Amino acid sequence: MKIANLCKITSLFFMLILMAGTGNRALADIAVIVNANNPLATLTQKDAGKIFMGKLRLFPGTNLEIHAFDLATDHSLRHTFYEKLVSMNASRLARYRASYLFGGKGRLPESVADESSLIYSVNTHINGIGYVSLRPLPDNVKVVFILKTDD
Amino acid sequence: MHTIIRALLLFYLLILPSESFAFTYSFSGFASFGAGHVSEPDLTFGDYDDHWGVDTDTMVGLQFQTPLWERLGLTIQGISRGYSYDDHLSRYEPELDWLFLSYELTSNLRIRTGRLRMPHYLYSETLEVGYSYIWVRPPVDVYTPALESFRNFNGADITWYGDLSLPYLSDTAEYELQLFTGVTHGKFLGNSVDVSPAVGFNILSNLRQLKLRYGFIALKASIDNEGLNQLIPLLNQASGALPPLADVAEGFSDDHEWYQYHGLGLIWDWHQWTLTAERYYILGSGSGLSNEARGWYISLHRPFGMLTPYLVAGTYSNHLQNGASGALSRSFDLIPQGVDASLDQLRTAASTAIDVFKVKERTYTAGLRWDVLANTALKMEYQFFEFMENSTGHLLLQDNAQKPKNASMISIVLDVVF
């Protein structure tokens, strides 16, 4: 009886570890999201990088102008996102953004305080695009690219 | 330009009531607060001399951006600088640096029209935004103040963005091709420069950690120098007795000569290290007041947390490429020095004018950038100038002072974006 219980507990422990592992990995990945009415179905990492670096101003294959949303500069997900997406740390990204903004290239992504605000912003802008940690999302927001963070 | 601003504001007000488009305008800005000191008493760099100056690197910029319609946007940027090489600008006099309408024709094609930045260099578009680059100021051997007159132009450009497949490397290179044309006018240390037209292209390519740039500009310039304007009639007058002086006068006259500008740039990121290098070359037509200038620099930096030390080395040279110098030498074969005092005085003045255009220097710089806050950087640098060709490089010598062989400059700047 004790051995059976021990086996159950051990199995449960490993299941929990596996679930925790899976959960952690799923939570750590980052979803690039757009409004559900956006004709865009998927996005490549290269195009996602171009969008958040301001090098693409219309969604690929559409005439829809991009309105990008960014998390606040002190948000940890923001650092991970740009490190993984375009290999830029916070300092280098800040220099790039200053150069972009004041160098006549265009407008910067609109900054929002947290992930809930970002989801709301994409939800209310047909041309909105942003990024959040992978999670259940409302119906009128869809994922077009998942950025893996565990490689 | 004021008329253009009024027209744009009127246009903005007319379409503002439209409910079909959401206006989300934005204000932003940047500022630099600098101080500097030159080791030698008779040399100056802007307002820096052997006493600490605070104007040369100090400036404030404000920018307004707004979408006007779908894919159509307006950008206005004004700056106020503590020091300008334009003698007609007073300290901190506001200048309009950017004013343009941009329209996204497709996802990879954009046109702009208005006042734009002449793309001489890798950092042309953000010369005044100190926060956007590592150094206290971009290396002076390439970012020469002599081109300040051509900093902006009024005209238009079109830019293509795309990817170039490179099957050899199993990769794609991003490219950006800009074509532009326009006119400009400016003043630089007593020289008044009119450029009409300037046409050119600028191509940027990104492949993995490598960024490459080549820029070409052909410009028709008329350079008007107050000192030379006084000298030319005297030389022409004296050419009756001494014909080679007519060629010297011709060599100082510039009226709508074509110049070519070539610029090469490279940024290579390797792990934490970044190597940046640029080279430029200006070639005159060979007639009139035609000069040949060239410069290069190589810079290396690596961040250690919030601190980024950097090293830079560079060279700059400039000389007249016309026959003025040869003609002046021939004049001494016909009438040697000491025969006619007034002719000697005139030829000394001509020789001095030729020497003004003869400049050569090498610079070595060591500096440190400290990213104090997310939008603030403090930078300090030490720059050593080695002068050649009996010149003082980019440092200006006070009249009749002894020319030193070298000099050093210390600069401190606090850069902010907001």
Written description of the protein model:
The complex is a heterodimer of chains A (151) and B (418). With 151 residues, chain A is α/β, with parallel strands linked by helices. Chain A has one domain (29-147): D-Maltodextrin-Binding Protein, domain 2 (3-Layer(aba) Sandwich). Chain A has helices at residues 2-28, 45-52, 76-86, 90-102, 115-124, and strands at 30-35, 67-71, 110-112, 128-133, 141-147. Chain A starts with a helix and ends with a strand. By secondary structure, chain B is an alpha+beta fold. Chain B has one domain (25-417): Beta Barrel (Porin), CATH 2.40.160.10. Chain B has helices at 2-15, 226-238, 244-252, 324-334, 341-356, and strands spanning 26-38, 43-44, 59-69, 72-81, 94-106, 109-117, 152-166, 171-188, 191-207, 210-225, 257-270, 273-283, 291-301, 307-320, 359-373, 376-388, 396-397, 406-417. Chain B has a 16-stranded antiparallel barrel. In chain B, helix 2 packs antiparallel against helix 3 (244-252). Chain B is globular and about 75 Å long. The two termini of chain B are 27 Å apart. The relative contact order of chain B is 0.13. The chains are: A alpha/beta (151), B alpha+beta (418). Chain A binds chain B through residues 46, 50, 55-62, 65, 73-74, 89-92, 94-96, 98-99, 101-107, 110, and chain B through 24, 26, 28, 30, 61, 63, 65, 67, 70-71, 73, 75, 77, 98, 100, 102, 104, 106-108, 110, 112, 116-117, 123, 125-126, 128-129, 131-134, 161, 163, 172, 174, 176, 303, 306, 308, 371, 374-375, 417.
